[in-house]
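Posting for a labmate who doesn't have an account.
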Amino acid sequence: MEYNFREIEKKWQKRWVEEKTYQVTEDDSKQKFYVLNMFPYPSGAGLHVGHPLGYIASDIYARYKRLQGFNVLNPMGYDAYGLPAEQYAIQTGQHPAITTVNNINRYREQLDKIGFSFDWNREIRTCDPEYYHWTQWAFQKMFNSYYCNDEQEARPIEELEKAFAIYGNEGLNAACSEDISFTAEEWNAKSEKEKQEILMNYRIAYLGETMVNWCAELGTVLANDEVVDGVSERGGFPVIQKKMRQWCLRVSAYAQRLLDGLDTIEWTDSLKETQRNWIGRSEGAEVQFKVKDSDLEFTIFTTRADTMFGVTFMVLAPESELVVQLTTPEQKAEVDAYLDRTKKRTERERIADRSVTGVFSGSYAINPFTGEAVPVWISDYVLAGYGTGAIMAVPAHDSRDYAFAKHFGLEIRLLVEGCDVSEESFDAKEGIVCNSPRLDVTPYCNLSLNGLTIKEAIETTKKYVKEHNLGRVKVNYRLRDAIFSRQRYWGEPFPVYYKDGMPYMIDEASLPLELPEVAKFLPTETGEPPLGHATKWAWDTVNKCVVENEKIDHVTVFPLELNTMPGFAGSSAYYLRYMDPHNHQALVDPKIDQYWKNVDLYVGGTEHATGHLIYSRFWNKFLYDMGVSVMEEPFQKLVNQGMIQGRSNFVYRIKDTNTFVSLNLKDQYEVTPIHVDVNIVSNDILDLEAFKAWRPEYKTAEFILEDGKYVCGWAVEKMSKSMFNVVNPDMIVEKYGADTLRMYEMFLGPVEQSKPWDTNGIDGVHRFIRKFWSLFYSRTDEYLVTDEPATKEELKSLHKLIKKVTGDIEQFSYNTSISAFMICVNELFNLKCSKKEILEQLVITLAPFAPHVCEELWDVLGHETSVCDAQWPAYNEEYLKEDTINYTISFNGKARFNMEFAADEASDTIQAAVLADERSQKWIDGKTPKKIIVVPKKIVNIVI
């Protein structure tokens, strides 16, 4: 029986659906294991061979855990909202929902061909109202909550309202946008709108003025990772920094818990460190500086309070409100020009760029430790969101301050004995403090740090600041609140209406609030988001439904929010919904959540380290506070798959001709290298007829060949359509089969590493599967399997494999597993093994990697159930023990021949046998050996 992979794969994919092989339900008799892939966005281009890498890796692990007896949840769905579908709608007029469904259908078709063990009964789509019902619900819960710093958890906002009515906000320790103070009497005297404005200062989901990346051409705010070099990643449109009133989530309130949680999860050290740096915890002091000749004062945050005596200038972030207040009339034109330039740079670009720019404000601030008036500058190396958006600059001991001072000729004052700052700043936190204060000036305050170590000086200064009311000791975080508004159509609607300019939530029972139809997907002529085109987008508070805009009376009918939620909204709690996707009453049933708990294995790319992986952890911690999620961390173990890069091919056209010369002859001509479609190249040999048919301009192409063939050049590049190096997995599946594709993707190298796709090696994997098949069937279709007992050699080969593969799967070292499979099959083939005892266990071991062929052979072996329900084999160390050892026999250190001895043979017996061997006599040549060294199980060396 021939290995007909096309028939076999279609047969088993159909049977898996019919028999619901991969559908899973909660089962208290089994230990659970939850495997999840990061939500894919269904693009119009479909999958290329790089996309399934992580899916295959997680699928192998899911199948392996099922074979070990675990109840495995392995769901899949789609992150279906996004800019690409909306941009396509703007260009063509086709509704994003249609584009998205078409793309999803294409993805599903491709995924099904690869043979994944996904439970498609649990499929979710973020654009489905049944799904975003719970995204809207969570947002409402955040709006109606505040974060209590004392309890370190989210609490109902009603608690604050009750407390304000009795105590005002005295003694309140809650996360807030700005520090305010009011009494109970003042609170009770305020209007409804004024009370709502105060509560907005504390809500976890709140409206706030914030700097955003605004792209006018796309008509929306972009996240930092959607902006590259001052332009949008999609479309390359200009992006500027702009202050807008936006919905935000108070992610910063959870900063410490996000840090602490990293110690409880199994993520790579590098990814944990990336998150720690992004969260950016620092301990220091906030200090007040007065503005010279003014009643104004402002606060700076510093982790180096010991350097106060070395402050020679101040710097404001361009976005700081102080810029307008401190800019003098003489400097206004210069400052305005500088601010206009910085609008085009994102915060991420400003952090990465080390070039020095800035402008003097015209004002001076008084150093509270020295009494000196120091100039206040404005520069984009200071960020508004970190600390207070203003810094004190100590150029002798900070590299960026040093570069700024050198560039603008500002004073650099040394504060550590014996250090040299002639070429660079001295940033180390070691040494003895000096010039604090300088010995040649009259002290301005009664603090001296001279002679202390830096560590002592930091603590002494923090204590002094606190005792003398110059500021306060504080822990700061770099982590910002998440901007949660997008000025686009294709996203989750906010369940919000506006009354007297303030937001109110629609009734929870009325969720979901569904996305309305609009005539255009662009912003309105007056600059409103696309939902401004909706004619039926108002909320009737009496009838609790959406009504026509013309009915708005601001009494019982009010306008609805025109922004939509960002891309990360739908992907922040999707792992919980997969547990219970058809529940109409709750995000997840508590009993079901208690069973699945959280994700045991999460697989996805490192590019989400500071986006999705921060937001989803925050979202889950909030739901944990609400009693919805039973686990505080959503993803226990995380594996980051690498990227499969493209292997591009090139042809070489002789200049001013339509003649193409082969690679090794190109140096004889003046040529232009041109990317060629890799799908018409095999093993770097160009299909000449296919090339001529590829594009009209090549129809008359002529070729200069070598040995009758056209050899293409190659390079490793990003896989993209523009380089014609995209390999469609459908083509691989059609030519070689899904099992070959699955195994080859894993064979390319370690899962975590990036590696180039090279179709040249795929034949070897396909030949392996055919050789594996030949253990069961002869070339004449004879069924070879027998019930004869296995030999020692066969058992040794099998159990060596089981031990290797079991260890490799646990470490995600799939590439070495596949090498081990090849070795084992070769050994069994050479042993002419056809024993059912061996082949049955081999099929089970290979099944996670090549499920289709293994299902077929498992069926052939006489089993009535799926190989998925078999039991993972355990290796037996007894079979791995060596009965005999092959010793190398050396004379004066030079190997001459080999001898076999029993594994437990005594050294004396080995020595005697070696000396008695006639081959030894030739090398001893009648002499008496000086020494005989036996290295157990390795070598015998005779010294003559």
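Reply:
Got it, the structure tokens are right above this. The longest strand covers residues 205-215.
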